Amino acid sequence: MTAGTRLRQSMLASAAGIAARHPAQFQPAWRAQLVPALVTAGLLALFFYGLSVLGFSFAMIGKGGGQLMVILAVMLPPDPQSWHQVVIYLGELAETLGMAFLGTLCAAVLAFPFGFLAARNVVPGWLVHILSRRFLDTIRGVDTLIWALIWINVVGLGPFAGVLAIICSDFGAFGKLFSEAIEATDRKSVEGVLSSGGSEIQAVRFGLLPQVLPVMLSQLLYFFESNTRSATIIGIVGAGGIGLALSEAIRTLEWQQVSFIIVLLLITVSAIDYLSTKLRMAIIGPRPV
Amino acid sequence: MARTVRPVATAELAASVAAYARALSARRWRTLQGLAVLVVCIALAGWAAEVRPLTLYAKFGNVLSYVDAIFKLDTGARVWTAPREWFWGLRKWLPLLGQTLLIAYVGTIAGAVIAFVCCFFACANLVRSRWVARAMRRALDFNRTVPELVFALIFVYSFGLGPVPGVLAIAVHTIGALGKLFAEVVENIDMRPVEGVAASGGSWVQQIRFAVLPQVQSNFLSYALLRFEINVRSATIMGFVGAGGIGDTLLIAIRNFYYSDVSAILLLIIATVMCIDSGTEKLRHRLLGGERPA
Protein backbone atom coordinates (compact mmCIF):
# COMPACT_ATOMS: atom_id res chain seq x y z
CA MET A 1 0.00 0.00 0.00
CA THR A 2 1.53 3.31 -1.04
CA ALA A 3 1.63 6.39 1.18
CA GLY A 4 -0.82 8.13 -1.13
CA THR A 5 -3.45 5.43 -0.82
CA ARG A 6 -3.02 5.33 3.00
CA LEU A 7 -3.54 9.10 3.20
CA ARG A 8 -6.57 8.79 0.99
CA GLN A 9 -8.11 6.07 3.13
CA SER A 10 -7.59 7.96 6.40
CA MET A 11 -9.14 11.06 4.81
CA LEU A 12 -12.12 9.01 3.60
CA ALA A 13 -12.59 7.51 7.07
CA SER A 14 -12.90 10.94 8.66
CA ALA A 15 -14.93 12.40 5.79
CA ALA A 16 -18.15 12.57 7.81
CA GLY A 17 -16.46 14.60 10.54
CA ILE A 18 -14.89 17.00 8.07
CA ALA A 19 -18.24 17.51 6.33
CA ALA A 20 -19.88 18.27 9.68
CA ARG A 21 -17.24 20.82 10.63
CA HIS A 22 -17.20 22.68 7.26
CA PRO A 23 -20.77 22.56 5.96
CA ALA A 24 -20.28 25.52 3.60
CA GLN A 25 -17.54 23.73 1.65
CA PHE A 26 -19.74 20.69 1.05
CA GLN A 27 -22.76 22.51 -0.30
CA PRO A 28 -23.29 21.77 -3.94
CA ALA A 29 -22.06 24.85 -5.84
CA TRP A 30 -25.25 25.28 -7.87
CA ARG A 31 -25.28 28.98 -8.05
CA ALA A 32 -21.67 29.39 -9.15
CA GLN A 33 -22.12 26.75 -11.83
CA LEU A 34 -25.51 27.86 -13.09
CA VAL A 35 -24.34 30.63 -15.43
CA PRO A 36 -21.50 28.66 -17.10
CA ALA A 37 -23.86 25.69 -17.47
CA LEU A 38 -26.53 27.83 -19.12
CA VAL A 39 -23.98 29.46 -21.45
CA THR A 40 -22.59 26.05 -22.42
CA ALA A 41 -26.11 24.72 -23.04
CA GLY A 42 -26.89 27.73 -25.23
CA LEU A 43 -23.66 27.33 -27.22
CA LEU A 44 -24.32 23.62 -27.72
CA ALA A 45 -27.92 24.24 -28.78
CA LEU A 46 -26.71 26.75 -31.39
CA PHE A 47 -24.06 24.25 -32.52
CA PHE A 48 -26.58 21.46 -33.11
CA TYR A 49 -29.04 23.88 -34.68
CA GLY A 50 -26.22 24.91 -37.04
CA LEU A 51 -25.41 21.30 -37.87
CA SER A 52 -29.00 20.59 -38.89
CA VAL A 53 -29.49 23.87 -40.79
CA LEU A 54 -26.24 23.50 -42.73
CA GLY A 55 -27.31 20.04 -43.88
CA PHE A 56 -25.17 17.68 -41.84
CA SER A 57 -26.44 14.12 -41.60
CA PHE A 58 -24.86 10.81 -40.65
CA ALA A 59 -25.56 9.35 -44.08
CA MET A 60 -23.87 12.28 -45.78
CA ILE A 61 -20.83 12.28 -43.50
CA GLY A 62 -20.47 8.53 -43.94
CA LYS A 63 -20.70 8.68 -47.73
CA GLY A 64 -18.48 11.77 -48.01
CA GLY A 65 -15.96 10.35 -45.55
CA GLY A 66 -15.74 7.19 -47.64
CA GLN A 67 -15.17 9.26 -50.76
CA LEU A 68 -12.52 11.33 -48.95
CA MET A 69 -10.68 8.12 -48.01
CA VAL A 70 -10.71 7.05 -51.66
CA ILE A 71 -9.27 10.43 -52.71
CA LEU A 72 -6.60 10.26 -50.01
CA ALA A 73 -5.65 6.77 -51.14
CA VAL A 74 -5.38 7.93 -54.75
CA MET A 75 -3.20 10.87 -53.65
CA LEU A 76 -0.43 8.59 -52.43
CA PRO A 77 2.36 8.56 -53.33
CA PRO A 78 2.89 12.21 -54.37
CA ASP A 79 3.97 12.23 -57.99
CA PRO A 80 4.52 15.25 -60.25
CA GLN A 81 4.32 13.03 -63.41
CA SER A 82 7.34 14.62 -65.11
CA TRP A 83 10.41 16.77 -64.46
CA HIS A 84 9.03 19.40 -66.74
CA GLN A 85 6.08 19.76 -64.37
CA VAL A 86 8.43 20.07 -61.36
CA VAL A 87 10.21 22.99 -63.02
CA ILE A 88 6.87 24.71 -63.68
CA TYR A 89 5.79 24.20 -60.07
CA LEU A 90 9.08 25.58 -58.73
CA GLY A 91 8.71 28.66 -60.91
CA GLU A 92 5.20 29.24 -59.58
CA LEU A 93 6.42 28.70 -56.04
CA ALA A 94 9.03 31.44 -56.60
CA GLU A 95 6.27 33.67 -57.90
CA THR A 96 4.25 32.97 -54.74
CA LEU A 97 7.18 33.84 -52.49
CA GLY A 98 7.87 37.01 -54.47
CA MET A 99 4.24 38.07 -54.11
CA ALA A 100 4.26 37.47 -50.37
CA PHE A 101 7.57 39.30 -49.90
CA LEU A 102 6.70 42.37 -51.96
CA GLY A 103 3.16 42.56 -50.64
CA THR A 104 4.24 42.42 -47.01
CA LEU A 105 7.04 44.95 -47.48
CA CYS A 106 4.95 47.50 -49.39
CA ALA A 107 2.06 47.14 -46.95
CA ALA A 108 4.38 47.81 -44.02
CA VAL A 109 5.95 50.84 -45.70
CA LEU A 110 2.52 52.28 -46.54
CA ALA A 111 1.10 51.52 -43.09
CA PHE A 112 4.07 53.06 -41.27
CA PRO A 113 2.86 56.69 -41.41
CA PHE A 114 -0.72 55.56 -40.82
CA GLY A 115 0.29 53.81 -37.62
CA PHE A 116 1.47 57.16 -36.24
CA LEU A 117 -1.69 58.89 -37.40
CA ALA A 118 -3.89 56.33 -35.63
CA ALA A 119 -1.87 56.34 -32.39
CA ARG A 120 -3.49 58.35 -29.62
CA ASN A 121 -0.22 59.50 -28.06
CA VAL A 122 1.15 61.00 -31.30
CA VAL A 123 -1.91 62.63 -32.83
CA PRO A 124 -4.06 63.70 -29.89
CA GLY A 125 -7.30 64.63 -31.67
CA TRP A 126 -10.00 62.00 -31.10
CA LEU A 127 -11.57 62.64 -34.51
CA VAL A 128 -8.39 61.72 -36.38
CA HIS A 129 -7.98 58.69 -34.14
CA ILE A 130 -11.52 57.39 -34.67
CA LEU A 131 -11.51 58.09 -38.41
CA SER A 132 -8.15 56.47 -39.10
CA ARG A 133 -8.99 53.43 -36.93
CA ARG A 134 -12.33 52.93 -38.71
CA PHE A 135 -10.60 53.30 -42.08
CA LEU A 136 -8.07 50.62 -41.16
CA ASP A 137 -10.84 48.36 -39.80
CA THR A 138 -12.80 48.70 -43.03
CA ILE A 139 -9.82 47.64 -45.11
CA ARG A 140 -9.05 44.80 -42.72
CA GLY A 141 -12.62 43.49 -42.85
CA VAL A 142 -12.24 42.46 -46.50
CA ASP A 143 -10.40 39.20 -47.09
CA THR A 144 -7.26 39.02 -49.28
CA LEU A 145 -9.08 36.89 -51.82
CA ILE A 146 -11.83 39.48 -52.27
CA TRP A 147 -9.18 42.18 -52.79
CA ALA A 148 -7.57 39.90 -55.36
CA LEU A 149 -10.81 39.63 -57.31
CA ILE A 150 -11.23 43.40 -57.29
CA TRP A 151 -7.64 44.05 -58.40
CA ILE A 152 -7.96 41.51 -61.21
CA ASN A 153 -10.69 43.76 -62.61
CA VAL A 154 -8.26 46.68 -62.50
CA VAL A 155 -4.82 45.35 -63.58
CA GLY A 156 -5.81 42.07 -65.18
CA LEU A 157 -5.02 38.44 -64.31
CA GLY A 158 -1.56 37.62 -62.96
CA PRO A 159 0.65 37.89 -59.90
CA PHE A 160 0.67 41.69 -59.87
CA ALA A 161 -3.01 41.66 -58.83
CA GLY A 162 -2.03 39.27 -56.04
CA VAL A 163 0.69 41.63 -54.78
CA LEU A 164 -1.78 44.52 -54.71
CA ALA A 165 -4.33 42.34 -52.88
CA ILE A 166 -1.81 41.40 -50.20
CA ILE A 167 -0.79 45.05 -49.85
CA CYS A 168 -4.42 46.09 -49.32
CA SER A 169 -5.41 43.50 -46.74
CA ASP A 170 -2.13 43.75 -44.82
CA PHE A 171 -2.19 47.52 -44.84
CA GLY A 172 -5.18 47.46 -42.51
CA ALA A 173 -3.67 44.87 -40.20
CA PHE A 174 -0.26 46.56 -40.06
CA GLY A 175 -1.79 49.97 -39.41
CA LYS A 176 -3.70 48.62 -36.43
CA LEU A 177 -0.76 46.67 -35.00
CA PHE A 178 1.70 49.55 -35.53
CA SER A 179 -0.57 52.08 -33.83
CA GLU A 180 -1.04 49.70 -30.89
CA ALA A 181 2.73 49.26 -30.63
CA ILE A 182 3.20 53.03 -30.67
CA GLU A 183 0.54 53.52 -28.00
CA ALA A 184 2.27 50.97 -25.78
CA THR A 185 5.59 52.89 -25.78
CA ASP A 186 7.20 54.59 -22.82
CA ARG A 187 6.47 58.31 -22.71
CA LYS A 188 9.64 59.23 -20.81
CA SER A 189 12.13 59.16 -23.68
CA VAL A 190 9.85 61.38 -25.77
CA GLU A 191 9.64 63.87 -22.90
CA GLY A 192 13.40 63.71 -22.55
CA VAL A 193 13.92 64.72 -26.18
CA LEU A 194 11.31 67.48 -25.93
CA SER A 195 12.76 68.89 -22.68
CA SER A 196 16.26 69.11 -24.14
CA GLY A 197 14.93 71.29 -26.93
CA GLY A 198 14.05 68.77 -29.64
CA SER A 199 11.16 69.41 -32.01
CA GLU A 200 8.09 67.16 -32.26
CA ILE A 201 9.58 65.40 -35.27
CA GLN A 202 12.84 64.83 -33.44
CA ALA A 203 10.91 63.46 -30.44
CA VAL A 204 9.27 60.88 -32.70
CA ARG A 205 12.56 60.08 -34.44
CA PHE A 206 14.78 59.71 -31.36
CA GLY A 207 12.28 59.02 -28.58
CA LEU A 208 9.60 56.84 -30.19
CA LEU A 209 11.11 55.13 -33.19
CA PRO A 210 13.89 53.21 -31.39
CA GLN A 211 11.22 51.69 -29.12
CA VAL A 212 8.82 50.53 -31.83
CA LEU A 213 11.12 49.59 -34.70
CA PRO A 214 12.07 46.12 -33.34
CA VAL A 215 8.40 45.33 -32.65
CA MET A 216 7.45 46.41 -36.17
CA LEU A 217 10.24 44.36 -37.76
CA SER A 218 9.19 41.28 -35.86
CA GLN A 219 5.57 41.76 -36.94
CA LEU A 220 6.78 42.19 -40.50
CA LEU A 221 8.54 38.83 -40.40
CA TYR A 222 5.53 37.16 -38.81
CA PHE A 223 3.26 38.50 -41.54
CA PHE A 224 5.67 37.36 -44.23
CA GLU A 225 5.28 33.84 -42.85
CA SER A 226 1.50 33.97 -42.82
CA ASN A 227 1.38 35.67 -46.23
CA THR A 228 3.36 32.85 -47.79
CA ARG A 229 0.46 30.70 -46.72
CA SER A 230 -2.26 33.02 -48.01
CA ALA A 231 -0.38 33.80 -51.26
CA THR A 232 -0.69 30.12 -52.15
CA ILE A 233 -4.47 30.39 -52.40
CA ILE A 234 -4.66 33.70 -54.24
CA GLY A 235 -3.97 31.79 -57.46
CA ILE A 236 -7.28 29.97 -57.08
CA VAL A 237 -9.08 33.08 -58.34
CA GLY A 238 -6.40 33.70 -60.98
CA ALA A 239 -4.07 36.18 -59.31
CA GLY A 240 -0.78 34.35 -59.76
CA GLY A 241 1.22 31.90 -57.73
CA ILE A 242 1.01 28.16 -57.19
CA GLY A 243 -2.68 28.27 -56.24
CA LEU A 244 -3.62 28.24 -59.92
CA ALA A 245 -1.69 25.03 -60.54
CA LEU A 246 -3.19 23.53 -57.37
CA SER A 247 -6.80 24.30 -58.28
CA GLU A 248 -6.18 23.15 -61.87
CA ALA A 249 -4.80 19.85 -60.58
CA ILE A 250 -7.85 19.41 -58.33
CA ARG A 251 -10.29 20.29 -61.15
CA THR A 252 -8.67 17.81 -63.52
CA LEU A 253 -8.57 15.20 -60.71
CA GLU A 254 -4.78 14.76 -60.89
CA TRP A 255 -4.67 13.79 -57.20
CA GLN A 256 -1.03 12.70 -57.18
CA GLN A 257 0.02 16.13 -58.45
CA VAL A 258 -2.22 17.73 -55.80
CA SER A 259 -0.42 15.91 -53.02
CA PHE A 260 2.95 16.77 -54.61
CA ILE A 261 2.08 20.48 -54.57
CA ILE A 262 0.88 20.23 -50.96
CA VAL A 263 4.15 18.59 -49.93
CA LEU A 264 6.04 21.33 -51.78
CA LEU A 265 4.03 23.94 -49.87
CA LEU A 266 4.67 22.28 -46.52
CA ILE A 267 8.43 22.22 -47.15
CA THR A 268 8.50 25.87 -48.28
CA VAL A 269 6.40 27.16 -45.41
CA SER A 270 8.43 25.34 -42.77
CA ALA A 271 11.67 26.62 -44.36
CA ILE A 272 10.33 30.20 -44.23
CA ASP A 273 9.18 29.65 -40.64
CA TYR A 274 12.65 28.48 -39.68
CA LEU A 275 14.45 31.34 -41.46
CA SER A 276 12.22 34.07 -40.11
CA THR A 277 12.46 32.75 -36.55
CA LYS A 278 16.26 32.90 -36.89
CA LEU A 279 16.11 36.42 -38.31
CA ARG A 280 13.71 37.58 -35.61
CA MET A 281 16.00 36.23 -32.92
CA ALA A 282 18.92 38.07 -34.52
CA ILE A 283 17.01 41.36 -34.66
CA ILE A 284 15.20 41.52 -31.34
CA GLY A 285 16.60 38.68 -29.25
CA PRO A 286 14.53 35.74 -27.99
CA ARG A 287 11.76 37.83 -26.43
CA PRO A 288 8.24 37.23 -27.71
CA VAL A 289 6.17 40.14 -28.98
CA MET B 1 29.72 77.41 -5.59
CA ALA B 2 31.22 76.61 -8.92
CA ARG B 3 32.64 73.15 -9.37
CA THR B 4 36.06 72.84 -10.82
CA VAL B 5 35.97 70.88 -14.01
CA ARG B 6 39.03 68.89 -14.94
CA PRO B 7 40.06 70.04 -18.41
CA VAL B 8 40.12 67.09 -20.81
CA ALA B 9 43.38 66.60 -22.60
CA THR B 10 42.94 67.29 -26.29
CA ALA B 11 44.71 64.08 -27.30
CA GLU B 12 42.40 61.98 -25.09
CA LEU B 13 39.39 63.72 -26.53
CA ALA B 14 40.57 63.25 -30.08
CA ALA B 15 41.06 59.52 -29.46
CA SER B 16 37.53 59.00 -28.15
CA VAL B 17 36.03 61.12 -30.91
CA ALA B 18 37.86 58.98 -33.45
CA ALA B 19 36.65 55.79 -31.74
CA TYR B 20 33.06 57.07 -31.80
CA ALA B 21 33.34 57.94 -35.48
CA ARG B 22 34.70 54.46 -36.19
CA ALA B 23 31.86 52.78 -34.29
CA LEU B 24 29.32 54.94 -36.08
CA SER B 25 30.72 54.26 -39.52
CA ALA B 26 30.86 50.53 -38.76
CA ARG B 27 27.18 50.61 -37.84
CA ARG B 28 26.32 52.62 -40.92
CA TRP B 29 28.25 50.16 -43.09
CA ARG B 30 26.27 47.25 -41.61
CA THR B 31 22.98 49.05 -42.23
CA LEU B 32 24.08 49.75 -45.78
CA GLN B 33 24.88 46.07 -46.34
CA GLY B 34 21.46 45.12 -44.99
CA LEU B 35 19.82 47.61 -47.33
CA ALA B 36 21.76 46.21 -50.29
CA VAL B 37 20.52 42.69 -49.49
CA LEU B 38 16.99 44.05 -49.18
CA VAL B 39 17.20 45.82 -52.55
CA VAL B 40 18.42 42.64 -54.25
CA CYS B 41 15.54 40.69 -52.64
CA ILE B 42 13.02 43.29 -53.81
CA ALA B 43 14.39 43.17 -57.34
CA LEU B 44 14.23 39.36 -57.40
CA ALA B 45 10.72 39.30 -55.94
CA GLY B 46 9.54 41.98 -58.35
CA TRP B 47 10.91 39.98 -61.25
CA ALA B 48 9.32 36.75 -59.99
CA ALA B 49 5.94 38.37 -59.30
CA GLU B 50 5.91 40.16 -62.67
CA VAL B 51 5.41 43.54 -61.06
CA ARG B 52 4.71 46.19 -63.68
CA PRO B 53 4.68 49.61 -62.06
CA LEU B 54 3.91 51.09 -65.47
CA THR B 55 0.78 48.95 -65.74
CA LEU B 56 -0.37 50.23 -62.39
CA TYR B 57 0.42 53.78 -63.44
CA ALA B 58 -1.39 53.39 -66.72
CA LYS B 59 -4.38 51.66 -65.16
CA PHE B 60 -4.60 53.66 -61.99
CA GLY B 61 -7.49 55.50 -63.54
CA ASN B 62 -9.30 52.13 -63.56
CA VAL B 63 -9.10 52.01 -59.78
CA LEU B 64 -10.85 55.32 -59.44
CA SER B 65 -13.43 54.52 -62.09
CA TYR B 66 -14.06 51.11 -60.46
CA VAL B 67 -14.66 52.73 -57.09
CA ASP B 68 -16.84 55.27 -58.86
CA ALA B 69 -18.77 52.50 -60.62
CA ILE B 70 -19.52 50.35 -57.58
CA PHE B 71 -21.20 53.32 -55.91
CA LYS B 72 -23.47 53.95 -58.90
CA LEU B 73 -26.81 52.34 -59.68
CA ASP B 74 -27.75 51.09 -63.15
CA THR B 75 -29.75 54.25 -63.62
CA GLY B 76 -26.58 56.32 -63.15
CA ALA B 77 -27.68 57.81 -59.82
CA ARG B 78 -25.50 57.56 -56.72
CA VAL B 79 -26.32 54.54 -54.57
CA TRP B 80 -27.11 56.43 -51.38
CA THR B 81 -29.86 58.38 -53.08
CA ALA B 82 -31.89 55.16 -53.35
CA PRO B 83 -30.94 52.79 -50.51
CA ARG B 84 -33.85 50.49 -51.27
CA GLU B 85 -32.65 50.04 -54.84
CA TRP B 86 -29.06 49.58 -53.63
CA PHE B 87 -29.90 46.86 -51.14
CA TRP B 88 -32.56 45.26 -53.33
CA GLY B 89 -31.28 41.77 -52.57
CA LEU B 90 -31.25 42.11 -48.79
CA ARG B 91 -33.85 39.32 -48.41
CA LYS B 92 -31.50 37.00 -50.28
CA TRP B 93 -28.24 38.26 -48.77
CA LEU B 94 -29.11 38.31 -45.08
CA PRO B 95 -29.83 34.55 -44.87
CA LEU B 96 -26.57 33.90 -46.74
CA LEU B 97 -24.74 36.14 -44.28
CA GLY B 98 -26.36 34.21 -41.44
CA GLN B 99 -25.22 30.98 -43.06
CA THR B 100 -21.68 32.39 -43.28
CA LEU B 101 -21.70 33.18 -39.56
CA LEU B 102 -23.12 29.74 -38.78
CA ILE B 103 -20.38 28.06 -40.86
CA ALA B 104 -17.75 29.97 -38.90
CA TYR B 105 -19.46 29.18 -35.59
CA VAL B 106 -19.95 25.45 -36.13
CA GLY B 107 -16.45 25.11 -37.61
CA THR B 108 -14.89 26.96 -34.69
CA ILE B 109 -16.74 24.93 -32.02
CA ALA B 110 -15.98 21.59 -33.66
CA GLY B 111 -12.34 22.53 -34.27
CA ALA B 112 -11.88 23.98 -30.77
CA VAL B 113 -13.28 20.86 -29.06
CA ILE B 114 -10.99 18.54 -31.04
CA ALA B 115 -8.04 20.90 -30.52
CA PHE B 116 -8.81 20.87 -26.79
CA VAL B 117 -8.52 17.09 -26.69
CA CYS B 118 -5.44 17.01 -28.93
CA CYS B 119 -3.46 19.74 -27.16
CA PHE B 120 -2.91 17.67 -24.01
CA PHE B 121 -1.18 15.02 -26.10
CA ALA B 122 1.04 17.59 -27.81
CA CYS B 123 2.78 19.17 -24.83
CA ALA B 124 6.00 17.83 -23.39
CA ASN B 125 5.18 18.45 -19.73
CA LEU B 126 2.08 16.23 -19.57
CA VAL B 127 2.98 13.42 -21.97
CA ARG B 128 5.65 10.94 -20.93
CA SER B 129 6.46 9.68 -24.40
CA ARG B 130 8.34 12.24 -26.47
CA TRP B 131 7.26 10.50 -29.66
CA VAL B 132 3.54 10.97 -28.97
CA ALA B 133 4.05 14.70 -28.35
CA ARG B 134 6.19 15.08 -31.45
CA ALA B 135 3.81 13.16 -33.71
CA MET B 136 0.85 15.20 -32.44
CA ARG B 137 2.79 18.43 -33.04
CA ARG B 138 3.52 17.45 -36.63
CA ALA B 139 -0.12 16.54 -37.24
CA LEU B 140 -1.23 19.94 -35.91
CA ASP B 141 1.41 21.68 -38.06
CA PHE B 142 0.03 19.93 -41.13
CA ASN B 143 -3.54 21.07 -40.38
CA ARG B 144 -2.35 24.62 -39.83
CA THR B 145 -0.06 24.97 -42.83
CA VAL B 146 -2.38 23.76 -45.58
CA PRO B 147 -4.69 26.73 -46.30
CA GLU B 148 -8.40 26.31 -45.51
CA LEU B 149 -9.39 26.91 -49.10
CA VAL B 150 -7.30 23.94 -50.25
CA PHE B 151 -9.07 21.70 -47.73
CA ALA B 152 -12.37 23.17 -48.92
CA LEU B 153 -11.52 22.40 -52.57
CA ILE B 154 -10.76 18.78 -51.69
CA PHE B 155 -13.80 18.43 -49.40
CA VAL B 156 -16.11 19.82 -52.09
CA TYR B 157 -15.13 16.81 -54.20
CA SER B 158 -15.93 14.30 -51.48
CA PHE B 159 -18.92 15.91 -49.69
CA GLY B 160 -20.50 17.77 -52.58
CA LEU B 161 -21.24 21.48 -52.99
CA GLY B 162 -22.75 23.35 -50.05
CA PRO B 163 -21.84 24.55 -46.57
CA VAL B 164 -20.73 21.13 -45.21
CA PRO B 165 -17.24 21.17 -46.85
CA GLY B 166 -16.84 24.78 -45.70
CA VAL B 167 -17.54 23.85 -42.09
CA LEU B 168 -15.20 20.87 -42.28
CA ALA B 169 -12.40 22.92 -43.86
CA ILE B 170 -12.66 25.58 -41.17
CA ALA B 171 -12.80 22.92 -38.46
CA VAL B 172 -9.69 21.15 -39.77
CA HIS B 173 -7.71 24.38 -39.97
CA THR B 174 -8.94 25.45 -36.53
CA ILE B 175 -7.73 22.18 -35.02
CA GLY B 176 -4.20 22.99 -36.19
CA ALA B 177 -4.19 26.67 -35.27
CA LEU B 178 -5.85 26.35 -31.87
CA GLY B 179 -4.13 23.08 -31.00
CA LYS B 180 -0.75 24.74 -31.29
CA LEU B 181 -1.75 27.77 -29.20
CA PHE B 182 -3.48 25.59 -26.58
CA ALA B 183 -0.42 23.35 -26.29
CA GLU B 184 1.80 26.39 -25.79
CA VAL B 185 -0.47 27.64 -22.98
CA VAL B 186 -0.39 24.24 -21.30
CA GLU B 187 3.40 24.07 -21.53
CA ASN B 188 3.69 27.32 -19.59
CA ILE B 189 1.51 26.31 -16.61
CA ASP B 190 2.65 25.98 -13.03
CA MET B 191 3.36 22.24 -12.54
CA ARG B 192 2.94 22.20 -8.75
CA PRO B 193 -0.86 21.69 -8.72
CA VAL B 194 -0.41 18.82 -11.20
CA GLU B 195 2.13 17.19 -8.90
CA GLY B 196 -0.23 17.74 -5.97
CA VAL B 197 -3.10 15.93 -7.68
CA ALA B 198 -0.75 13.17 -8.86
CA ALA B 199 0.67 12.75 -5.31
CA SER B 200 -2.79 12.29 -3.81
CA GLY B 201 -3.55 9.54 -6.28
CA GLY B 202 -5.31 11.39 -9.11
CA SER B 203 -5.35 9.78 -12.53
CA TRP B 204 -4.04 11.56 -15.66
CA VAL B 205 -7.52 12.77 -16.57
CA GLN B 206 -8.09 14.00 -13.00
CA GLN B 207 -4.75 15.84 -13.09
CA ILE B 208 -5.89 17.66 -16.21
CA ARG B 209 -9.38 18.35 -14.87
CA PHE B 210 -8.38 19.67 -11.45
CA ALA B 211 -4.85 21.01 -11.88
CA VAL B 212 -4.41 22.05 -15.52
CA LEU B 213 -7.86 23.24 -16.56
CA PRO B 214 -8.34 25.95 -13.90
CA GLN B 215 -5.04 27.50 -14.98
CA VAL B 216 -5.69 27.54 -18.71
CA GLN B 217 -9.43 27.94 -19.27
CA SER B 218 -9.57 31.72 -19.61
CA ASN B 219 -6.68 31.72 -22.08
CA PHE B 220 -8.27 28.88 -24.05
CA LEU B 221 -11.57 30.75 -24.30
CA SER B 222 -9.83 33.94 -25.36
CA TYR B 223 -7.92 32.17 -28.13
CA ALA B 224 -11.10 30.41 -29.29
CA LEU B 225 -12.90 33.76 -29.55
CA LEU B 226 -10.01 35.21 -31.55
CA ARG B 227 -10.19 32.20 -33.88
CA PHE B 228 -13.93 32.70 -34.32
CA GLU B 229 -13.22 36.26 -35.45
CA ILE B 230 -10.67 35.01 -38.00
CA ASN B 231 -12.98 32.21 -39.13
CA VAL B 232 -15.85 34.63 -39.85
CA ARG B 233 -13.50 36.38 -42.26
CA SER B 234 -12.48 33.15 -43.98
CA ALA B 235 -16.07 31.86 -44.10
CA THR B 236 -16.88 34.81 -46.37
CA ILE B 237 -14.57 33.38 -49.06
CA MET B 238 -15.58 29.72 -48.76
CA GLY B 239 -18.23 30.35 -51.38
CA PHE B 240 -15.50 31.08 -53.97
CA VAL B 241 -14.92 27.33 -54.27
CA GLY B 242 -18.56 26.37 -53.74
CA ALA B 243 -18.35 25.69 -50.01
CA GLY B 244 -21.32 27.76 -48.83
CA GLY B 245 -21.90 31.23 -47.44
CA ILE B 246 -22.14 34.60 -49.11
CA GLY B 247 -18.86 34.24 -51.09
CA ASP B 248 -20.59 32.62 -54.04
CA THR B 249 -22.94 35.59 -54.51
CA LEU B 250 -20.08 38.06 -54.13
CA LEU B 251 -17.97 36.17 -56.67
CA ILE B 252 -20.80 36.28 -59.21
CA ALA B 253 -21.36 39.99 -58.58
CA ILE B 254 -17.66 40.83 -59.06
CA ARG B 255 -17.16 38.59 -62.11
CA ASN B 256 -20.32 39.78 -63.87
CA PHE B 257 -19.77 43.46 -63.03
CA TYR B 258 -22.99 43.92 -61.00
CA TYR B 259 -21.36 47.04 -59.64
CA SER B 260 -23.82 48.28 -57.03
CA ASP B 261 -24.27 44.73 -55.69
CA VAL B 262 -20.53 44.50 -55.09
CA SER B 263 -20.51 47.55 -52.85
CA ALA B 264 -23.70 46.49 -51.04
CA ILE B 265 -22.43 42.97 -50.24
CA LEU B 266 -18.97 44.27 -49.29
CA LEU B 267 -20.55 46.78 -46.90
CA LEU B 268 -22.66 44.02 -45.33
CA ILE B 269 -19.58 41.84 -44.85
CA ILE B 270 -17.52 44.70 -43.41
CA ALA B 271 -20.30 45.68 -40.99
CA THR B 272 -20.69 42.08 -39.82
CA VAL B 273 -16.95 41.58 -39.36
CA MET B 274 -16.70 44.84 -37.41
CA CYS B 275 -19.59 43.86 -35.10
CA ILE B 276 -18.06 40.43 -34.43
CA ASP B 277 -14.62 42.01 -33.88
CA SER B 278 -15.77 44.53 -31.30
CA GLY B 279 -18.01 41.97 -29.58
CA THR B 280 -15.29 39.36 -29.18
CA GLU B 281 -12.77 42.03 -28.17
CA LYS B 282 -15.00 43.12 -25.28
CA LEU B 283 -15.57 39.52 -24.21
CA ARG B 284 -11.86 38.76 -24.33
CA HIS B 285 -11.00 41.82 -22.25
CA ARG B 286 -13.47 40.66 -19.61
CA LEU B 287 -12.16 37.10 -19.72
CA LEU B 288 -8.56 38.15 -19.23
CA GLY B 289 -9.56 40.47 -16.40
CA GLY B 290 -8.49 43.75 -17.98
CA GLU B 291 -5.00 42.62 -18.90
CA ARG B 292 -4.01 43.40 -22.48
CA PRO B 293 -4.49 40.40 -24.75
CA ALA B 294 -1.30 39.28 -26.40
Can you offer a commentary on this structure?
The complex is a heterodimer of chains A (289) and B (294). Chain A has helices spanning 3-13, 15-21, 30-53, 58-75, 83-117, 126-141, 144-155, 159-183, 188-195, 200-234, 242-251, 255-284. Chain A folds into two domains: 20-74, no CATH class; 83-284, Orthogonal Bundle (MetI-like fold), CATH 1.10.3720. Chain A has twelve helices and no strands. With 289 residues, chain A is an all-alpha fold. Chain B is mainly α and 294 residues long. Among the domains of chain B are: 17-51; 97-243, MetI-like (MetI-like fold, Orthogonal Bundle), CATH 1.10.3720. Chain B has eleven helices and no strands. Chain B has helices at residues 10-48, 53-70, 83-86, 90-119, 130-145, 148-159, 163-187, 192-199, 204-235, 247-255, 259-287. Chain B starts with 9 loop residues before the first helix and ends in a 7-residue tail after the last helix. Chains A and B meet through helix 1, helix 3, helix 4, helix 5 and helix 6 of A and helix 1, helix 2, helix 4, helix 5 and helix 6 of B.
List the defining traits of the structure above.
heterodimer; A: 289 residues; mainly alpha; MetI-like fold; 2 domains; 80% helix; extended; B: 294 residues; 11 helices; flat; disordered C terminus
Question: What is shown here, in short?
Answer:
Chain A is an all-alpha fold.
**What radius of gyration of chain A results from the CA coordinates?**
28 Å
* Major sheet description of chain A: none
User: Portion of residues in helices of chain B?
Assistant: over 70%
CATH homologous superfamily assignment of the largest domain in chain A = MetI-like
Tell the overall outline of chain A: extended
Overall mean confidence score, pLDDT of chain A: 83
| Gross morphology of chain B | flat
Structural class of chain A: mainly alpha
Low-confidence stretches of chain A: none
Strands of chain A, total number: 0
Question: Helical segment tally of chain A?
Answer: 12
The averaged pLDDT of chain B comes out at: 85
Gyration radius of chain B, rounded = 28 Å
| Oligomer classification | heterodimer
Order of helices and strands of chain B: HHHHHHHHHHH
Order of helices and strands of chain A: HHHHHHHHHHHH
Structural class of chain B: mainly alpha
What would CATH call the architecture of the domain at 97-243 in chain B?
A: Orthogonal Bundle
Low-confidence stretches of chain B: 290-294
**CATH fold descriptor of the domain at 97-243 in chain B:** MetI-like fold
Percent of residues in β-strands of chain A? under 5%
